[in-house]
Amino acid sequence: MSIFLELGQRPDEPGPPIHGPASYPVDVATRLRDDAAIIIARYPDSRSALLPLLHLAQAEDGCLTPAGIAFCAEQLGLTAAEVTAVATFYSMYRRTPTGDYLVGVCTNTLCAVMGGDAILENLQDHLGIGAGQSTPDGRITLEHVECNAACDYAPVVMVNWEFFDNQTPSSARELVDALRAGEPPTPSRSGSLCTFRETARTLAGLPHPDGADDAATVGAATLAGLRIARERGMGAPAAEGPARDSTSDATGHEQAEAAEAVKDEPAPGPSADVPARGQTEETDPTAMDTP
């Protein structure tokens, strides 16, 4: 008996993982190179700038496109395959066009218990779209997200990765209605709400679009554990000092020279002289006397 397996895209995947224009117009590429130069200059190894450059490309297109992938590869001396491998790993890099406001509803355990599932279902009905889809006016993209690390004020909705705490189905409807009306409300933990592309540019490490100092605030629920610990005199144990060895008295210059001399050598493997972690002379068979 033979079995036929058809390989390819899943039914819900709209074409290749990253699709769109293959290159940028000359004026756009020139402008992006100026921004990229600022970002790359911050890193001793240029390829370390890949993640912020991907945000820069996303700020241009609203998602990652072959043009953005090619641009990042060209700036960093990487192949398109290397850039794509990174871009498709992280969920913050979008593969399909994204609206002005990316609305993410957390339905992980605590948010679900507190009503996250109901909020997502309500927004899907209210907007007439499913999770992962955008409204026809291009204002909102709705998605289901994993834990937002904001359980202290569950259930939480995020808009362009800004928190809106203690949500209910009705407050979430009011939130998206305000976004569609061009009247973005103030997030729970910061001073302003940017569009998706403005947020991506900020994540790339470039100046905030309006120059505002958007410092986050911390609520009482977030600090509850710290407050209780202080009231009860609780604290972390003191760290033990590092064991001294023959190199502990070396100067910083000598230590740097020693590190440079062995930086390309492989780490030593277990041996009679260098036992595996947790292995002692009593358990190391190479250290035992043979009859």
UniProtKB/TrEMBL annotation:
Top-level lineage group: Bacteria
InterPro entries: NuoE-like, NuoE_dom, NuoE_N, Thioredoxin-like_sf
Region listing for Disordered, in residue ranges: 235-291
Keyword field: 2Fe-2S, Iron, Iron-sulfur, Metal-binding
Protein family: Belongs to the complex I 24 kDa subunit family.
PANTHER family hit by this protein: NADH DEHYDROGENASE [UBIQUINONE] FLAVOPROTEIN 2, MITOCHONDRIAL, NADH DEHYDROGENASE UBIQUINONE FLAVOPROTEIN 2, MITOCHONDRIAL
Protein name as annotated: NADH-quinone oxidoreductase subunit E
Lineage, opening ranks: Bacteria, Bacillati, Actinomycetota, Actinomycetes, Mycobacteriales
